[in-house]
Specification:
about 325 residues; seven-stranded antiparallel sheet; 14 strands
Length: about 325
């Protein structure tokens, strides 16, 4: 009936409002929904169809897994495993083949006395319930660790390319673009100092998987994903699902460094990825615009948005003195 059709249309409009989809993007999304998602026999979009129906009814996927995040962004029907089997990702060998070159590039960029710092910044989150005891001493957001230091160097984040960082890591960037399938526009180098503990947390949804290429410093390091404990080895890449609760400990003698790249879940079709990426881009674009508009408005540190925290944190590390590197790996650290 016309009343039912109007109700369905209103529910679709509400979902697009949730994702802040406007203008031509909204028109394109509605056409895609009509042409692809509304056709029940179209297998290419069956998972996104299930997700959209849930959201149209104000519901989320109840997956029943205690250690996996409950999020309105979770897509039903995707394979879920804390750590993926090697045979599911045959392309990992191509990434491992570039380990030595990426590590050499990282060591070359690491600053020595008198040069500019490498580009790492402290990992920070907005202030949130449960994180009050980890508020940063400088007032900018919440630390991801309850001891030690966790620093990151962003290459891609939320569909933004960090041009200055990418210019200093051409081999790494080329690897991300060429060797990783359908990367999620979220890639960074992560450095964890000896004695650190990354507190348990969840990723935002199951739409992406996380790929690690361990670079160096993995003696004494452990990663828990769900109920699985991993002891990664330098040069051995692997895939895990960071929608599961995870945490990490580093009890080794040198700073642990890893290249982290998120990829779209392999069960999603290209058509589904295109639709979900459009929604995500619209929400991120609106969030960045809002952050820019509010930048001039005085606010307390607890009100800083994620985008503001990332930008402000870029200037916090003025040296690389925090970076403990094995002397054989970096000859500049040897005594003269």
């Amino acid at each position: 009936t016309s009343t039912s059709a109007a109700r369905v249309l209103s529910a679709v409009e509400k979902v697009l409002d949730e994702w802040l989809v406007t203008g031509l993007h909204r028109a394109g999304a509605k056409k895609f929904i009509q042409d692809k998602i509304c056709k029940e026999n179209d297998e290419e979009c069956k998972r996104v169809r299930q997700w959209l129906l849930l959201r149209m009814n104000g519901r989320i996927w109840e997956h029943g897994m205690a250690l996996m995040c409950r999020s309105p962004d979770n897509v039903p029907g995707l394979r879920s495993s804390p750590v993926w089997q090697r045979e599911d990702s045959p392309w990992l060998s191509g990434i491992e083949a570039r380990h030595a070159d990426i590590l050499a590039e990282l060591m070359a960029v690491r600053s020595t006395s008198g040069s500019r710092p490498s580009g790492f910044q402290p990992y920070r989150d907005p202030v949130h319930p449960g994180g009050e005891d980890r508020k940063a001493k400088d007032g900018l957001g919440v630390e991801g660790v309850d001891r030690g230091m966790w620093n990151v160097l962003y290459l891609f984040l939320n569909h933004k390319q960090f041009e200055d960082n990418c210019a200093r890591f051409p081999i790494t960037v080329a690897t991300i673009k060429e060797a990783f399938p359908r990367h999620y526009s979220h890639a960074f180098l992560s450095a964890l100092t000896p004695g650190s503990h990354i507190v348990k947390h969840f990723g935002p949804s199951n739409r992406m998987l996380r790929v690690w290429l361990p670079l160096c410093g993995f003696d004494g390091f452990r990663l828990r994903v769900g109920d699985v404990i991993l002891k990664p080895k330098a040069g051995e890449a692997f895939v895990w699902d960071h929608s599961f609760e995870h945490e990490a400990w580093h009890e080794g003698p040198e700073t642990r460094a890893v290249l982290i790249v998120d990829i779209w879940h392999p069960d999603l079709t290209d058509a589904e990825v295109k639709f979900l990426r459009t929604l995500q881009s619209c929400r991120l674009r609106a969030g960045k615009a809002l952050a820019e508009l509010s930048a001039e408005v005085p606010k307390g540190p607890e009100e800083a948005s994620y985008f503001e925290i990332v930008e402000k944190a870029r200037s916090l590390l003025t040296t690389d003195d925090w970076w403990v590197v094995n002397a054989q790996r970096d000859p500049s650290t040897l005594p003269t």
